[in-house]
Amino acid sequence: MNLQIFTTGGTFDKLYYDALSDFQIGDPTVDDLLREARVDFSYRVDSLLKKDSLDLTDEDRALIRDQVAACEHRHILIIHGTDTMTNTAEALRGIAGKVIVFTGSMQPARMRQSDAPFNLGLAIGALQLLPDGLYIAMSGQVFEAGKVRKNRSEGRFEGQ
User: What sequence ranges are listed for the domain L-asparaginase N-terminal (predicted)?
Assistant: First the structure.
């Protein structure tokens, strides 16, 4: 499998600055996580944006769509903030001939009790098994895009 990974920021790559009592988007962590997992497939990581998903614009979504559509690889993973992940997935609807899986996390990957490594593994496993289409891999499940929502009060994704 040749996997293209696009990162857009979101909680997955947030850093906590104690002196500022604030989170900021850092460099992508996915490469470190995959090295630690000792994966044995070819992948490339491209950071498209470093934004909280609540700050994404229509222009940002158009950039993501253009990059995915132009990508030579069939298997595409998009690491995205969870608040508007479903909106960006909708913006990619109609791209044919690709398996596109979105994932993210409720806690930054750099934190010890993060769901990021689990979600990343789930998304990569799903990419290898799913037919062409748009999917969201979160909360231990893989959902077809358009049939999932974030339940903020429970801190998880669930089917609609």
Answer: 3-155
Mean pLDDT within 58-82: 98
**Residues 6 or more apart in contact with residue 41 via CB below 8 angstroms:** 1, 2, 3
Distances, alpha carbon 6 to alpha carbons 16, 81, 156, in Å: 22, 12, 22
Q: Among 17-21, 26-30, 127-131, whose mean pLDDT is lowest?
A: 17-21
Which regions of 21-153 does DSSP assign to beta strands (E)? 22-25, 42-51, 75-79, 99-103, 133-138, 141-144, 148-151
- Mean pLDDT of all residues in 70-78: 98
Q: How confident is the model over 24-34, as pLDDT tens digits?
A: 899 999 999 99
Cα–Cα distance measured from residue 45 to residue 13, given in angstroms and rounded to the nearest whole number? 13
The neighbour count for residue 119, using CB atoms within 10 Å, is 25
Supply 66's token pair.
């253009």
Could you give the 3-state DSSP secondary structure of residue 100? strand
**Domains of the chain and any CATH numbers:** 2-159 (3.40.50.1170)
